Inverse folding.
């Protein structure tokens, strides 16, 4: 689970309404997007449009056998989360007993998203089914247990209530893995989506869903729940998957889930995300992009892996903004509807939500 730097989506994401002409082609959609805000319009720091980052003379890559942690480069430093909006949204989530991936995954953008930035817009990614996962991926700081607490039957209504009060156009849901449940929690997630749509039929819902160990019936439950964007992260290249992800997560299984979601519901926008800096090669990243396109994935995000605690995988390399720009361009060349690539990009990428919203609205106008 993307899901992004200190990004300024402000009025773009929640208040702006694109004026769409009717279109039946991908080129028309891209033309409208290109005339609107671009990647840099959503970025506060760093400014990758200039070459200031090139002046950094620190070490960016650990050599084989080195154990010392790399020093954080300036383009990955973020502001401390403070402010009235930050405190307000945190209290509301606590009162409703809701978890967020923003906190559990130690997202570097929590201050901007919860604090609202210069436009005062508050956003959060709700994490369903509690804060404890049955898997133990080596990059993730979410708590793990073989038998987490039982599901909260009130969570669907509480989630819908919170989201309705925020007045959003687009919401991102994610969840822990619950391999202890017969259906992996798929029915519970689907009920949350239905409750959200019931309170606001016009809202677009993205769900960063588990793989349900490849159970296609569980995938179908989510894909036919009224969802707009089905997201499932491949996380890393195939060679590194056994060392980075839990043993129950599988590279080919992820591709199969994304492919089946689209087969089950062709109207879905599908989305995935890749972390860079774990020791992957350019050739392996290229192959991963091609694999995702081969199963019909529409949207892609690429971001820098950042070690959440000393117990987790160390960063092998801090990838430069220039290289992230290369992958953004490559994603466009391969035909992704939208590619977000940057050091602080995460799968829940606010600029991405803006672009995906424009795509969904275009489709609805046809």
């Amino acid at each position: 689970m993307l899901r992004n730097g200190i990004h300024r989506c402000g009025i773009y994401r929640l208040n702006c309404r694109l004026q769409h002409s009717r279109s039946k082609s991908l080129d028309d959609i891209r033309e409208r997007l290109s005339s609107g805000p671009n990647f840099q319009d959503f970025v506060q720091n760093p400014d990758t449009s200039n070459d200031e980052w090139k002046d950094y003379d620190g070490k960016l890559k650990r050599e084989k056998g080195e154990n010392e942690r790399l020093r954080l480069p300036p383009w990955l430093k973020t502001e401390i989360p403070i402010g009235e909006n930050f405190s307000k949204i945190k209290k509301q989530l606590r009162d409703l007993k809701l978890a967020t991936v923003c906190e559990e995954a130690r997202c570097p953008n929590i201050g901007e998203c919860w604090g609202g930035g210069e436009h005062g817009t508050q956003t959060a990614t709700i994490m369903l089914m509690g804060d404890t996962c049955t898997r133990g991926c080596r990059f993730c700081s979410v708590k793990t247990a073989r038998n987490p607490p039982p599901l909260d039957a009130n969570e669907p209504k509480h989630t819908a209530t919170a989201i309705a009060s925020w007045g959003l156009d687009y919401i991102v849901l994610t969840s822990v893995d619950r391999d202890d449940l017969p259906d992996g929690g798929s029915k519970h997630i689907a009920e949350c989506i239905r409750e959200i749509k019931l309170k606001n039929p016009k809202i677009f819902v993205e769900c960063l869903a588990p793989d349900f160990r490849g159970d296609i019936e569980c995938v179908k439950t989510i894909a036919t729940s009224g969802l707009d964007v089905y997201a499932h992260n491949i996380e890393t290249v195939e060679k590194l998957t056994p060392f980075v992800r839990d043993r129950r997560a599988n590279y080919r299984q992820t591709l199969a889930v994304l492919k089946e979601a689209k087969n089950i519901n062709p109207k879905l926008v599908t989305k995935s995300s890749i972390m860079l800096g774990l020791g992957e090669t350019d050739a392996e990243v290229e192959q991963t992009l091609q694999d995702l396109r081969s199963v019909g994935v529409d949207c892609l995000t690429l971001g820098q892996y950042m070690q959440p605690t000393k117990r987790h995988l160390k960063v092998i390399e801090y990838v430069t903004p220039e290289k992230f720009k290369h992958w953004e361009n490559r994603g466009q060349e391969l035909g992704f509807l939208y590619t977000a690539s940057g050091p602080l990009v995460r799968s829940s990428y606010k600029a991405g939500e803006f672009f995906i919203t424009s795509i969904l609205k275009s489709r609805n106008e046809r």
